[in-house]
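ok trying this again, last paste got cut off
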Amino acid sequence: MAVAKPPIQQLTYHFQFMDGRSWTYELKIGSEVNDQTPLAPWTELDFYRCKNCPLDSSLSPACPLANGLHPLLEGFKGTESHDHVQVKVDWRGREILQTTTIQRAASSLMGAVSANSGCPHTRFLKPMVWFHQPLSQADETLFRALGSYLLAQKLRAREGKKPDWELENLLNAYQNVRIVNRGISRRIQEASTQDSEINGLILLDLLASDMLNAIENYEGELDGYFAEFLELSDK
């Protein structure tokens, strides 16, 4: 059965830097990436290619994630990861305003770009980007990641497909994301003289690592939020 996809939505990050410069990045959530032309030599698929990449360079000469991140290198040029920036995010009819570090702002935007890029190893994150939460904390990310994945399994079961209630495929997916993050970091190291983009990706990799650990060795980090459900009697 064909599944109707939601309409394209625009996510906009506005950055106001401390030196007076401003920069805006617009991301169309749900848009298909049609241009496979590498935007720079470091975005070519075979340039420090991720060891788990399944793409064929004859069909996809550009790394979709590298192409998606290319504008960010230009936008954050001349900044340092510890610099502060005022971020305004326009999303789903709301404005989110926060002053934070370049590292955290870059990581938040990179997470959305990554999920929307078309990289085969980040596609499982697409449901989360439809409900993107800018500048989220670690527990919020864990809640959204587990919640969206378990809902997906319920929908699979409803369609007669095998669900993954034990989260085995989710663990594998985040292991692949870690490999991709390291590969992209290597690419960007060759293209950037500053560290904000690198540190943003390091932060994303730490989140992927934390997610793996939280799933494999869950110790009730989210239980308190579900006390009402856990205290309900089975009778």
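PB: full thing came through this time. The two ends are 38 Å apart (CA to CA).
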